[in-house]
Amino acid sequence: MTPADLTRTVLHTVRCAVEADELRAAVPTRVTVRVPPRPGCGDYATNVALRLAKDTGRPAREIAEVLRRRLAREPGIARVEIAEPGFLNITLQGSSYVRLVRGILDGEDAPGESLPLHPDPGLVRRLGPDAARWAQVSPPGLDRELLLVQRESNPLFRVRYAHARTRALLRNARDLGFESLPGELDDSAAAPLLAALGDHPRITATRAPDRLARHLERVADAFLRWQADSPTLPRGDEKPSAVHRARLALAEATGKVLADGLTQLGITAPAHL
User: Fold this and answer.
1) Following DSSP, what letter does each residue of the chain receive, concatenated?
2) Whole-prediction pTM value?
């Protein structure tokens, strides 16, 4: 079950509960499922019960219990738990991490279309086309001259550096004779990165350039923190293991998401930086 499948399942569950008169509410046109920011909270979470509670005045936990019973019977769902004040934490059958990474690498979500960004000629002359486009989607307080320096304080540099780092890892792995392969990871440090990757389709669907730029910063920062603690490549005489291949797959998926987002903003994603 992909995130898109789960979204449809949650929406169908709400509709069935309303039709069965278990809930007296208008069926929303869409619902949101996200990867939780912390491990141990299921594979995905949805706030649909909280939304329905606002519309009906009924306690969110009561609504969540109605939906929990129905969702737990759906194929592909292992269990559903309620977290205060009424979130539904959903655990899928099998490994959601593997499905998420494999889905990105297999291109289940087609690259988004370019967003309309047209920086003025003066800004392009001063900063160059890439930095000028990033400046357009930056918070008002950002010093635009910062976008010209290659250091961590430059958010565009961090995003492009993270992408280049993923490409370097893939090149180095090929030199060592192994490739990426999505697999199980007992790595709690990867949770923020997985949460950010799982959010990518939702963010791109908004067609909001500023939100996409902040999302790319979140992905890049989560990747760089994870990389600092989780070696992707073997060290010394160590042989490549399944863990190395799984970590490399996560790095490769991160690179694809960063490249897709930069491309949508009309910004180049260099393999070397």
Assistant:
1) --HHHHHHHHHHHHHHHHHTTS--SPPPS---EE--SSTTS-SEEE-HHHHHHHHH-S-HHHHHHHHHHHHTTSTTEEEEEEETTTEEEEEESS-HHHHHHHHHHTTSSPPPPPP-----HHHHHHH-HHHHHHHHTS-TT--GGGGGS-STT-HHHHHHHHHHHHHHHHHHHHHHT----------GGGHHHHHHHHTHHHHHHTT-HHHHHHHHHHHHHHHHHHHHHS--S--TTPPP-HHHHHHHHHHHHHHHHHHHHHHHTT----S--
2) 0.72
Neighbours of 64 (CB within 10 A): 28
Q: Are strands 77-83 and 33-34 parallel, antiparallel or unpaired?
A: unpaired
Q: Which two tokens stand for residue 208?
A: 């909001």
Span 60-78, average pLDDT? 92
Name residue 264's amino acid.
Q
Copy the structure tokens of residue 75: 């194929």
Query: Omega into 75 within 30° of 0, i.e. cis?
Result: no
State the virtual CA torsion across 57, 58, 61, 63 in degrees, nearest 10.
-110
Tell me the three-class secondary structure of 38-93, residue by residue: CCCCCCEEECHHHHHHHHHCCCHHHHHHHHHHHHCCCCCEEEEEEECCCEEEEEEC
Phi, psi of 272 (to 5 degrees): -125, 140
Contact 71, 88 (CB under 8 A): yes
153-205 pLDDT, tens digit each: 999 999 999 999 999 999 999 999 999 998 877 666 787 888 788 888 888 88
